[in-house]
From TrEMBL:
Superkingdom classification of source: Eukaryota
Alphabetical GO biological process terms: fatty acid biosynthetic process
A molecular-function term among this protein's GO annotations: oxidoreductase activity, acting on the CH-OH group of donors, NAD or NADP as acceptor
Protein name, as recorded: Glucose 1-dehydrogenase
Name of a matching Pfam family: adh_short_C2
Taxon lineage: Eukaryota, Viridiplantae, Chlorophyta, core chlorophytes, Chlorophyceae
Keyword Oxidoreductase: yes
Xref: NCBIfam families: PRK07231.1 (NF005559)
Signal peptide region: none
Family indicated by similarity: Belongs to the short-chain dehydrogenases/reductases (SDR) family.
Keyword Oxidoreductase attributed: yes
Amino acid sequence: MAALASQRLLGKVAVVTGGARGIGYGCARSLCREAQVLLADYDLGAAQRSAAELTTAGHSAAAVKCDVRLKADCDAAVAAAVAEWGKLDIMVANAGIVKAAPFLDMSEEDFDDVVAVNLKGVFLSCQAAARQMVAHRQSDPAWSGGAIVTMSSVNAVMAIPSIAGYNASKGGVNGLTRCMALALAPHGIRVNSVGPGSINTDVLAAVASDPAARGRILSRTPLGRIGEADEVGAVVAFLASEAASYMSGQVVYVDGGRLALNYTVPVPQPEPAEGSS
């Protein structure tokens, strides 16, 4: 799928928020096979290192600091992409955080922080991108149109009680994605979302290092393994490409079959070491 998508991204310009690491960097790697990619991240140093890795590998990439909670930062990230490459074709609104606490103990501040990044940040970054895309289309009627991809989660529809803010924010992303798809269709802009399941990021790695926790993760994953960031990135690249030219307002779940499952699956246990009792 990545190869199919990349053939349709030649000459495109993309911004990936939260692009310095994890799923965001996986999206940047998939897109930059053909597109020019701006990594917009709260951690500028990490974004610059990731952009340098892509550049060293022969791709076209740059970095900018962006706090997606701030309209000015989102506007500046879009402006930076246009200044660097002359236009913006693709926005990947990926930046997100999670804060866990028992529901009765979750603070207002933590809830607000998660919603501000995961939902408000998607609104601000996508609105900034869409405004630029609309202006571009008005000045260049031959332009093929834009694509926006938001980052949802299986937790938009499956609740975990210790991450109420995250669940609420990702459910909001699904609704916002559909609203944007309807509002922007007349302007030639498609809007879709990707909902990852258990993906091998730094956050999950810290959890999955515990054998019992890893067993729980795999017991709810029919494909029997944790996903990789590049596997999410491949679907993002597909949705951003002309291969998905008749798709808008959709959420595509990249979850190893998790949402289809209404039971847990057995997880093979490692054989005890020889001589152990």
